Amino acid sequence: MSPFDEYIEAHNAAVRSGDWEAFSRWFTDGAEVRFEGAPVGPFRSRDEIRAAYESRPPDEEVEVRNVRSKGDRTVADYGWAGDHGVRAGELRVSWDGDLIRELVITFE
């Protein structure tokens, strides 16, 4: 399983459990999460990212499709598990080793 797939599994486990601590360990200390098409963020630092997800957690698990990786970047289409195959946007991940340095989440 790739680091990206493991990250998605950690995200979905946090959605189910409400425990965002383990999920937050996927990010570097200085990571940034930005949302395009949603009036929230950006969030900078692992602690700020964890706090953001704890205060406004997603209520559905995410599904990814069409995953493309090149160098230190992974891009994937995503949708919500309850929408069965409907594209919600794109996840754009920049890696620092096996940790996320930057995550951009787009909403369509």
Q: Could you explain the architecture of this structure?
A:
- The protein is of the alpha+beta class and 108 residues long.
- Helix content is 27%, strand content 42%.
- The chain is built from 3 helices and 6 strands, in the order H-H-E-E-H-E-E-E-E.
- It has helices spanning 3-17, 21-24, 46-55; strands at residues 27-36, 43-44, 62-70, 73-80, 89-96, 99-106.
- It has a 6-stranded mixed beta sheet with strand order 2-1-6-5-4-3, covered by helices on one side.
- A hairpin with a 2-residue loop joins strand 3 (62-70) and strand 4.
- The radius of gyration is 13 Å and the shape is globular.
Order of strands, main sheet, comes to: 2-1-6-5-4-3
Q: According to CATH, what is the class?
A: Alpha Beta
Q: Biggest sheet, open or closed, and with what strands and sense?
A: 6 strands, mixed
CATH T-level topology: Nuclear Transport Factor 2, Chain: A
- Approximate shape: globular
Number of helices: 3
- Low-confidence stretches are none
CATH architecture: Roll
What is the H-and-E element order?
Answer: HHEEHEEEE
- N-C termini distance: 28 Å
Task: Tell me the number of structural domains.
Answer: 1
Strand content: 35-45%
What class, by secondary structure content? alpha+beta
The tally of strands reads 6
Helix content range: 25-40%
